[in-house]
Amino acid sequence: MLQLQVIRQNPEWIKERLAVKYFSDTSVVDEIVRLDEQRKKLQLEFDNTQAKINSSSKEIGQLMAKGEKEKAEALKQSISSLKTSLQPISDQLAETGKQLLSELVKLPNLPSQKVPGGRTPEDNVIVRQGGNKPSLPKDALPHWELAKKYDLINFELGNKITGSGFPVYKNKGAKLQRALIQYFLDYNIAAGYTEYLPPHLVNETTAFGTGQLPDKEGQMYFVTEDKFYLIPTAEVPVTNIYRDEILKESDLPIKMTAYTPCFRREAGSYGKDVRGLNRVHQFDKVEIVQIVHPERVMMPTTRWFLM
What is the rounded CA–CA span in Å between residue 158 and residue 37? Predict the structure, then answer.
């Protein structure tokens, strides 16, 4: 979530960076600034009123000690009136804070200034290339046909058991999937990552902590009775390991890796470009997560996706 101080000091710059992501409703930025100003005014009014109550309460004790009971009683009436006025201010402050948070979570993270604008793959800028790109013959088979030919993955069986987007791996396909998971975990551990095996369901607070809620619940599977969400990626439970904790700079970087199955509803998973394993509702992934010093946040990261 973006820091309020940054939004207050640079609202127009925030809007410019959001435009790179084609975030259309930049009026949210203005509403955040307005609500924050309102919050600060209410907080000041609350603090001043509370300060008057505290000082008057202290003065009552002094008046009583001097035997000036009439003045003390009059001051008590004044304090009673101040306390009565304090509750509506407190209620307004709480409501404004709630509205402010509701607007803040609508803003996505800002892209780096190195990220160019663009809507299509053609607008992307190649930063680095490695290896040799294979040149396939004209009669090369797509992966879903290869999977069927060699009996590696059965999409129809998955559809029968569950529904579209839940493939069943068989024979060498299942063995390859299992081997890749082990290989990437071992690779990451050798690179200094600590392995975790987190829960595959998370609560609402955890889903909110990594930004799946409040606006991406439509992409998640929800267990209604327990109010748990099936994870869309291992990043969600792993990142939340350090939620609400303050870390020492000397402890950084913290490097974590985890394998989990991942579940995504993936609305619009149809068409020639999403056939086979290109977009499914359940898949496997070995994730890596680093918690690093802010000055090192632009370091490249890698995620191992397994289908």
Answer: 54
E-strand stretches of 86-208: 153-154, 168-169, 194-196, 201-202
Q: How far apart are CA 53 and CA 273, in angstroms?
A: 67
pTM above 0.70, yes or no: yes
Which tens digit of pLDDT belongs to each residue from 82-92? 788 888 999 99
Please give the pLDDT value at position 23.
83
- Tokens 């000036």 correspond to 68
- What is the spatial distance between Cα 31 and Cα 39, in angstroms, rounded to a whole number? 12
Taking every pair of Cα atoms in the chain, the longest distance, rounded to a whole number of angstroms, is: 104
Close Cβ partners of 298 (under 8 Å, ≥ 6 residues apart): 112, 114
**Block residue for tokens 């955040």:** 32
Range of the domain at 73: 4-104
Note the pLDDT of residue 300.
45
Q: Is residue 138 part of a domain?
A: no
DSSP bridge pairs for 291: 254
Count of structural domains, the chain: 2
Q: Is residue 111 part of a domain?
A: no
Distance CA 205, CA 213 (A): 9
How far is it, in rounded angstroms, from Cα 183 to Cα 185? 6
Residue 303 CB contacts under 8 Å (≥ 6 apart), including other chains? 285, 286, 287, 288
Q: What is the CATH number of the domain that holds 220?
A: 3.30.930.10
How many Å apart are CA 139 and CA 156, to the nearest integer?
A: 24
Q: What is the DSSP string of 65-81?
A: HHT-HHHHHHHHHHHHH
